[in-house]
Design a protein that fits this description.
By secondary structure, this protein is α/β, with parallel strands linked by helices. It contains 15 helices and 26 strands. The radius of gyration is 23 Å and the shape is globular.
Length: 500
């Protein structure tokens, strides 16, 4: 029987420590044993079939990894859900994916029970104790392995389906490029419903026998203390985290700052991604620590595709060169021609890392490919062998604190409010977050009622999607065809005093 490569690796590394967390230390053997138990528990709850989708709402730690591996033992597709998702978002993911069942931490299970409305069996991971172990179905690289929901460019999130072969290609490419080894140690505080945390950190580490220090959230003082203790060899974060680290370091007394920066300088690799890293922040971090951050580029649909070199020039403002096994081309915005060096064009990707399509959305899948090339919607230019991102083909994508948000999705939620007649959502520049969400409303709501609107939003969407700036206006700016002119909407906010 062909085994999942994760299980084979875990078998080789056995007694090595795989995870550190508030719940304790866990070895690779613990991951294998616990995933067998969860697979058996799920098998007792429902008649799982190969290809079934199993959702997961579990805090980062042993049971998160075990739930992922349990799905794969059953031949099911792993569907990790956001811990900060609203009830409506949870319900949508369960219904759109047709989830056959779900794993949940006991403390989170009621949220899924309410979202499922009786249609999806929920298994609390803590209830799977002492259940007989479960084997694994034969590993099929072409079979579906995971679905991640991404906002994309439509009003409703799309499920990105990746196969086991895709995941293997994504991880092996990064392991080669970034020289992962069993001796690496890395913290994980990023969300585990995005590829940054799932593939770049957790996947690569467990593939190679490395150690992951799982934190419930990013805490700048705790992380810096661990730097000083020499607990990490690799560090990966979004630009916002590096901005917070810079501010913290600058607030420390000189001797304490030197202790941290000296320790940071010993790490073998520090990576920034999920949003554009300002060149000024890149330079500031280098000046403070001696570390040149490695910027890379990727998307949910293919994980990582471009990276600055591990050994060589890491150029600020650039996302580097194609990773091993990945082909890149730039195509003119009309789609008619491949452009050369120095000319802007849409990034298109080809390789084993690229997903086969969106879950149950054949039209969206067809529109996202040109032959076997995936159309990213990002525009870049090739300069002296390095790619530099210029922006999106769509103005309706907002990149905030590492999240890629759909303005259209947020607009559709806001329009559910009975007092909002029209709205337009845009991203406006912010030094800390990259962009923040801003909404212009045609509404009866007044400034003093905005806190009530924000409270309503918390019931409808994840907190990172909720607008942080509001403009209450009589009419949205439109062109002769009646289409909202988003650049003019953005200009509204430069003339208004902040209300958040």
């Amino acid at each position: 029987m062909i085994k999942n490569p994760f299980f084979e690796s875990a078998g080789r590394f056995g007694s090595r420590r795989a995870l550190r967390s508030l719940q304790g230390d866990h070895t690779y053997s613990d991951l294998l044993s616990r995933s067998q138990t969860l697979a058996s528990g799920m098998g007792c709850l429902v008649d799982c079939r190969v290809g079934d989708r199993i959702a997961c709402l579990v805090e980062p730690g042993l049971d998160y990894v075990a739930a992922q591996w349990a799905c794969w033992r059953l031949g099911a597709i792993f569907l990790p859900l956001s811990l900060s998702a609203s009830p409506a978002e949870l319900e949508y993911a369960l219904n759109d994916s047709g989830a056959a069942a779900a794993f949940a931490s006991r403390s989170l299970a009621q949220r899924l029970v309410q979202a499922a409305k009786g249609s999806t069996p929920i298994l609390a991971t803590e209830d799977c104790e002492g259940i007989h172990t479960h084997g694994a179905v034969p590993h099929d690289p072409s079979a579906g392995a995971m679905i991640l929901y991404t906002s994309g460019t439509t009003a409703r999130p799309k499920g990105v389906l990746t196969t086991h072969g895709n995941i293997q290609a994504q991880i092996e490419s990064l392991v080669e490029a970034w020289e992962w080894s069993p001796f690496d140690r890395i913290p994980l505080f990023l969300p585990l419903h995005h590829v940054h945390g799932i593939i770049n950190i957790l996947g690569c580490a467990l593939w190679t026998g490395a150690e992951v220090d799982i934190m419930p959230r990013f805490d700048v003082a705790s992380v810096c203390a661990r730097f000083v203790a020499g607990e990490y060899t690799v560090f990966m974060a979004v630009p916002t985290i590096y901005s917070l680290l810079v501010s913290y370091l600058e607030s420390l007394p000189a001797d304490e700052r030197e202790s941290v920066t000296r320790a940071v300088s010993c790490l073998r690799l520090m990576v920034s991604g999920s949003a554009a890293l300002p060149a000024s922040l890149h330079e500031k971090w280098s000046q403070l620590t001696g570390q040149a951050l490695l910027e890379r580029y990727g998307m949910t649909e293919m994980a990582m595709a471009l990276s600055n070199p591990l050994k060589g020039e890491r150029r600020p403002g650039s996302v580097g060169q194609p990773l091993p096994g990945v082909e890149i081309r730039l195509v003119s915005e009309t789609g008619g021609a491949v452009v050369g060096s120095g000319e802007p064009g849409e990034i298109q990707i080809r390789g084993r890392n690229v997903f086969p399509g969106y879950w149950n959305k054949p039209e969206a899948t067809a529109a996202s490919f040109s032959g076997d090339w995936f159309r990213t919607g990002d525009v870049a230019v090739l300069e002296d062998g390095y790619y530099r991102i210029l922006g999106r083909l769509s103005v309706d994508i907002i990149k905030s604190a590492g999240y890629k948000l759909s303005a259209l999705e947020i607009e559709s939620v806001l329009l559910e409010h009975p007092d909002i007649r029209e709205c337009a959502v845009v991203g406006i520049p912010d030094a800390t977050w990259g962009e923040i969400v801003a909404a212009a409303l045609v509404t009866q709501i007044t400034d003093d009622k905005l806190p009530c609107l924000e409270e309503w939003c918390r019931l409808k969407m994840s907190r990172y999607k909720i607008p942080r700036r509001w403009a209450l206006i009589e009419n949205l700016p439109r062109n002769a065809m009646g289409k909202v002119v988003k650049p003019e909407v953005k200009n509204l906010f430069s003339a208004l005093a902040p209300n958040n």
